[in-house]
Design brief:
Helices cover 35% and strands 20% of the residues. The protein is elongated, with a radius of gyration of 40 Å. Among the domains are: 170 residues, Rossmann fold (3-Layer(aba) Sandwich), CATH 3.40.50; 172 residues, 3-Layer(aba) Sandwich (Rossmann fold), CATH 3.40.50; 59 residues; 73 residues, no CATH class; 107 residues, no CATH class. It has 29 helices and 31 strands. The strands form 7 sheets. The chain has an 8-stranded mixed beta sheet, sandwiched between helices. The chain has a 6-stranded parallel beta sheet with strand order 9-16-13-10-12-11, with helices on both faces. It is an alpha/beta fold.
Length: 833
Amino acid sequence: MKFPALPVTQALPELRAALQEGHAVLTAPPGSGKTSIVPLALLDETWLQGRRILMLEPRRPAARMAARRLARLAGGEPGGLVGYQVRLDRRIGADTRIEVVTEGILTRRLQSDPALQEVGLVIFDEFHERNLQADLGLALCLDVCAGLRDDLRLLPMSATLDAAPLCDLLGARHVAASGRQYPVGIRYLDAHDRREPLQVLRSLVRKALQDSDRDILVFLPGRGEIERLAGQVADDCAAHGAVLERLYGDLPAAQQDRILVRLADAPRRVILSTDLAESSVTIEGVGCVVDSGLARKPQFDPNSGMTRLQRQPVSAASAEQRAGRAGRLGPGLCYRAWSEARQGRLLPVSAPEVATSDLSGLVLELALWGVTDPQALAWPDLPPAAHWQQACELLQKLDALDTDGRLTSAGRRMAGFGVEPRLARLLVAARNAAEARLAADLAALLGERDLFTRQAAAGCDLGLRLQLLDDARTQARLQQGVDRRRLRAVLQLAGSLQRRLAVDDAGGPREPGVLLSLAFPDRIARRRAQGRGRYLLANGCGAIMEESDSLADSEWLVVAALDAGRREGRIWSALPISQPALEAVQAEHVIEEDQLAWDESRQGVVARRVRRLGAITLAERVTSPQDPDAAQAVLLQELARRWPGGLPWNAAAAQYRARIRRMAELQPGAWPDVSDAALQADMGDWLGPWLGGRLRLAQLADLDLMACLQGLLDWQQQQQLDAWLPTHYTSPAGSRRRIDYLAEGPPRCAVPLQEVFGQAATPKLAEGRVPLVLELLNPAGRPLQVTADLANFWAGAYKEVRKELRGRYPKHDWPEDPAVAPARRGTGRSRRG
């Protein structure tokens, strides 16, 4: 067979030699012919022994396009030597030896035929995309090679793959084909350009229309951006005689395929595309690429169990892939909507899906394979433990796995459908013919695109979609805004699923929300008290829908489609359900328990008998606390949160605590820690024994906190505290004056000046270790002098004080030598009288 003169042909001898020995990894730049030449070139290899080649593609359009390209090169049509199989579309005949399939098809085939008896080579095309199914397929194939088929060959291929780690994993030889078919010139944005992204892209499309006479491929993150840019560049395209096209996953297959092929006499095209056109597919006629540098990727959060679509910068590898689209048919140009400096900051490669995705489908497949521990297989990247654990917990809620992670009988049936675990749970829940059709309809609706166009604004109600299917079957007139192509696809899938269901015709049909709740038990939702369209999910997360939605006033919902959002999830599709029906079907998951909690309105601990489903309270009533210790723990937790509020701190307790802290400074390690942090942390020890039956703040008013603190000291410590740091200072006049230990610095005592006559030096505490600062007061009780050196005060400043106060307070004694004078209380006249 004669092949086109593409760069990969130069690497074919080395590739054949590598595969003769075992596995191989092939890297070759975009446009080098990997997808279209390699499978045909290997068909007659002796080690293949006439078996088939299975080539995996990451997307359905890529699989169809690759198969058509291979079939044309072989001189036929799909279904002959070359065939393909994607979801709901199969063209494989008796003579087919090259099968191009999407990655999930390989998993299904391995589960039914673990040895892959008719297959000699599995090619993982565009493996750099690291899709979840590709990683799973590779891990399972390696397991097959190790245990059943040492003659099975594996060949990952990519333009931007880091081959070394993969070669180590496979024990494979790396074969590299060098050189892009045609050079591509890269143009970057000026680093100082501050225009809005859409303005930048419009200007780049205009420039591309002027600089290139070939088709232009524009990469955008999603359909919304495609439509907005289309509205801005439509006139520019028309002015240059170019036709504006759109390419995204929601387009009909025929329309996607039409865009991929260029007719000889067709006008120039400007194709606005998602990353669907990034790899695998060749859009004929493209000579220029405009790259936004953005992609919208799902990001799974194992903590919430929800996925958020995030717009994020592409990796350097993806940017290289995109630029390569311009160099397949001749020298090309690529305009990048970012600066060259930013190019150097891009991540080298995108994170593999196994690190960012919901793993429930993968875990179910592995359980069917007999693997309950991911480390039992060889992976390019091991599934993250948190994602794996979350998937196992979900599958247990869906009754697919037991507590040991092994398949239940329901789980085995679920795995056989080859659909997402939640949708499979819907299907196995059907008990009779009516429920079988309902379950199949729901699974098909959730497995395909929405039946309504975006312009229809039909809201979240899946019930409207179910009615549409019934109307279509009875050929009733359909309402406006229905996408008939999607409707046909959903009806086709629903019919296929229903035919695979075996039911026993037992019992009557249950309402749709009941079946949906079995598949989405964590997304049962109850409306919050505040506002329309705000809900609490059973998994504890919040979710919202438009206030104008017809379901926004529903008390109970089962949410099927949900975007995690930034704060609350955004509901896209749901069904209402009645509480009695919900409680009946979820009876084994309804928990009744006694809860102790702080009640802010009562300012105390209350006990409630609560019936709940996950995080949602079904009903509750106030009861008396049955566990005093647990109730006290709640009170202590609340007091710690309010610290120091909530407790009746008085002067005596505060001073006692301050005295203990000062003793701890004098004798480190010998005294208890009574800092805020320590008292908060140890409230159960020092406060708990004194609470008695108190459970409300009002009941704490008579609590003696000084006694509580005394409980921290033994008898000797209490005695030493009183001796070293007494509560009062006894002046030479015999009066007892309170000492303040809360003041900054050394302890201080306010005392009238006449009462310390005869006190020659500053009094000392703690056996002479701590000076007592005296705040000397005049006869009116106002501060006169603060001193920590009484002897110096007597010898110096006292003289001026005496002069000033003798005339103002003549009835008081003002001796010339106060250090030896007798102390006085009150005036001299009162003493003599």
